[in-house]
Specification:
The chain is mainly alpha-helical and 119 residues long. The protein has six helices and no strands. The protein has one domain. Helix 2 runs parallel beside helix 5 and helix 5 runs antiparallel to helix 6.
């Protein structure tokens, strides 16, 4: 079990890095660029075996941000390739992330039905 303060520090550091990048490169790099960059970096670092030590140190502070989503996609793909061969490269990431993706869609839909956004 990871201490709560470590999850806070790791998650906060990831957010701080993204905020600094946006502030320094304004308006060149947008929040969308940061989101895609975090997912890509998480997947690349996971594929190289460098993201799991961060997960071991920071727990949810490393798995909940978007870099954790990239890590999940990469680990799902690696596992599926080991089990199914090359075909697993096409389906493994989506299979590993299916529960999270489904939850985001369902909760987003419920929120849209229950609340009236002021635009």
């Amino acid at each position: 079990m990871v201490p709560l303060y470590m999850a806070f520090l790791v998650g906060g550091a990831l957010c701080l890095i993204g905020q600094i990048i946006m502030d320094v490169t304004k308006p060149t790099i947008t929040p969308g660029h940061i989101l895609v960059g975090y997912i890509s970096c998480g997947a690349i670092l996971s594929g190289l075996g460098l993201y799991q030590p961060l997960v071991n140190i920071g727990g949810a502070g490393a798995t909940i941000p978007l870099s954790g989503f990239g890590h999940l996609l990469a680990q799902g793909t690696i596992k599926a390739v080991e089990q199914k061969g090359l075909l697993g490269a096409l389906s493994g990431g989506v299979e590993a992330a299916a529960a999270g993706i489904t939850a985001a869609i369902v909760f987003g839909y419920v929120a849209a039905v229950l609340f009236d956004p002021k635009g």
